[in-house]
Amino acid sequence: MMTMLLSQSKTLGEVMKEGVLPADINFFGLGVNPSFYSALIVTAFLLFIGVILRIFVIPKFKVIPGKFQVVLEWIVSFFAGLAKDNSPKHNNYLGAYCFSAGLFIFFGTLIELLGLRAVLVDINACIMLGMFSFISILLGGLRYNGPKGLLGALKDFSLPLSMSFRLFGSMLSGVLVTLLVYEYIALSFVVPVFVAVVFTLLHAVIQTYVLTMLTSMFYGQAVEPKERKVKKSKQSKRALSQTVQTQ
Q: What pLDDT is recorded for position 178?
C-alpha cells in the first residue's frame, strides 16, 4: 500500500506540507496566507446578506411565519438560547456575539466546498477568534462583577490558547484528511467528493457549536454574581463563644 502511495506524483510528505504550509499569495505587495482572502470573502458575504435581510426580508415578517422565516428564527433562537442557558441574567451581548462568531466559523469552513482554503486553517484566524472570545469574557466579568470579575476571568489565562489551538487542530485535520483522500484514493470521483463534503459539513457544525458553547459557558461564569462574605460582628462572636462554653 505504501509503495502505491509513494508512486503517485506527490509523496505523502509533500501533500501534508502543502496542506499545513501553503504558499503565500500577493495582497497589495504583501505575502499572505490564502485563508486571508477566504476571510475577506466570508466577511463581505455575511455583511451583504445581513443588509439584504434587514432591509428587504425582516420588515416583511408575518405573525404566521413561512418556511424561510422559521429557519431564520430558529437559527437566531438557537444562539440566543445557548447564551441564555449559560448566562441567564446577562446574555444580550453574548447571544449576538455567539451568533456572529458561529456564522463566521460555519461559512468560513463551508467556503472550502468552493475550492478555496478554509478560513480557520490559518492559525492566525483561530488565535484572533479565541482572543475575541476571551476579551468578551473579560469585559463581561469587569462590567457585572467589577475588578473581582476581571481577575476571576484572568485566572483562565490559558483559555484563548486552548480555544484557538483546539479549533485550528480540528480544522487542519479535516483539511489533511480531505487532501489525502483526493490524492491517493484511486476510486471513482464520487468517493473523494462525498468524503470532502461530509468532513466539511461536520467540521462546520461541530466547531461552530464547540466554540460558541465554550464562550457562553465561561462568559456565564465570569458575569455570575459573586456571593459576598458576611463579616461577623464582635457581639455575634461573643454570643457564639458563650453558647459553646455553656454547652
A: 75
Total count of domains within the chain: 1
Q: Which amino acid is at 11?
A: T
The C-alpha R_g of the chain, in whole angstroms, comes to 25
Residue 150 cell numbers, joined: 476581571
Does 240 map to a domain?
no
- Kindly state the average pLDDT of the residues 7-32: 76
Q: Is the pLDDT of residue 36 over 90?
A: yes
How far is residue 177 from each of residues 21, 34, 119, 128, 137, measured CA to CA in Å?
Answer: 15, 19, 17, 25, 34
Residue 219 in any domain: the answer is yes
Give the residue numbers spanning the domain of 61: 2-226
CA distances, 194 to each of 8, 110, 142, 199, 201 (Å):
22, 14, 47, 9, 11
Q: Which residue in this structure is represented by grid cell 473523494?
A: 192
Residue 31 parent element (H or E): strand 30-32
Percent of the chain predicted with pLDDT > 70: 81
Q: Has residue 237 been placed in a domain?
A: no
Residue 124, CA atoms < 13 Å, CB-side half-sphere: 7
Q: Are 181 and 197 in contact (CB under 8 A)?
A: no
State pTM to two decimals.
0.82
Residue type, 134: F
- Residue 27 phi/psi, 5-degree rounding, is -135, 95
Separation of alpha carbons 104 and 110, rounded Å:
10
pLDDT value of residue 180: 73
